[in-house]
Design brief:
This protein has about 290 residues and is α/β, with parallel strands linked by helices. The chain is about 50% helix and about 15% strand.
Length: about 290
């Protein structure tokens, strides 16, 4: 199979714009569209409508906020003329059910749908170190690998079916949310005994309690007071809610999931909109002091 001659990118938000910027550095022309005009990165061509992007591109990347919007966009794409043979690569985090619904819409008109959520946050997007979790034909991943390599450090084929990428993304974000909340409580316990945060982190980073919160978020975002991991608390809470929803559907154990969901509901209710998720530390610190 030949490489896509022209790329489309729809959704230039917090994660989308930096990923698209790296794709624009490749050989294929990139057609861009977002509901908010003026976000197209250097090297891309801004289009006023979704239809213009789809008409001119062989492969269209989606980076959208939720499953409702993804399904609205895929329905709009499916209604356009001459779309058979094109490929949709959805990098949004929307849950398995929404991915399957979008796939049914797209495949119904002769297109290929790839469930390919990404992990790494805005910082990973800015550094081209995003992880792509590919749920779709391996042959299509191989065909697009040179494009994925422009913005991704790791690409994993986790299965051939839509929804499988979402399942792995949700369990990953649940673990990230758990590590962030649990590490905040653990560090607060250490601080209550007069131990400096830096010393706590030094010990745990080389011990069995190490995790991404301890290794990265605390030393680089919390200890510095910058709280700039680049991912909103309400978005992480959305992922935790989706995880809990589909764990209940699967019938697997969810003792931890229910408790972690309580924490992140509290965080979203407490913080202003678009607060960095690392501010869970501040929320739990104030809660313990009350």
């Amino acid at each position: 199979m030949s490489s896509p001659k022209t790329i489309g990118f729809v959704g230039l938000g917090q994660m989308g714009e930096p990923m698209c910027a790296f794709i624009c550095k490749g050989e294929a022309p990139v057609l861009c569209h977002d509901r908010v005009p003026g976000l197209t990165p250097e090297g891309g061509t801004e289009k006023a409508s979704l239809a213009e992007v789809v008409a001119g591109a062989d492969t269209i990347f989606l980076s959208l906020p939720d499953g409702k919007i993804v399904n609205e966009v895929t329905s709009e794409i499916a209604a356009l003329p001459d779309v058979a043979g094109k490929v949709i690569i959805d990098m949004s985090t929307i849950g398995p059910a929404a991915a399957k619904e979008a796939a049914a819409t797209i495949t119904g008109v002769g297109m290929t749908f790839i469930d390919a959520p990404v992990s790494g946050g805005r910082q990973g997007a800015l550094k081209a170190s995003i992880t792509v979790i590919w749920g779709g034909p391996k042959a299509e991943m191989d065909r697009h690998q040179h494009i994925l390599d422009l913005f991704s450090k790791n690409t994993f084929h986790v299965g051939d079916e839509p929804g499988q990428g979402q399942a792995v993304k949700l369990l990953n974000n649940f673990l990230s949310a758990t590590a962030m909340a649990a590490s905040s409580e653990a560090v607060l316990f250490g601080l209550s005994h007069g131990v400096e945060m830096g010393k706590i982190l030094d010990v745990v980073k080389v011990s069995t309690g190490n995790n991404t919160a301890i290794a990265d978020k605390f030393p680089n975002r919390i200890l510095t007071g910058t709280y700039d991991a680049g991912f909103f608390a309400e978005l992480l809470n959305k992922d935790v809610r989706l995880y809990n929803e589909f764990v209940q559907e699967a019938g697997t154990s969810n003792m931890m999931g229910e408790r972690v969901a309580e924490v992140w509901n509290l965080v979203e209710d407490t913080l202003p909109p678009q607060s960095d998720f690392t501010r869970v530390f501040e929320v739990l610190k104030k809660r313990g002091a009350s």
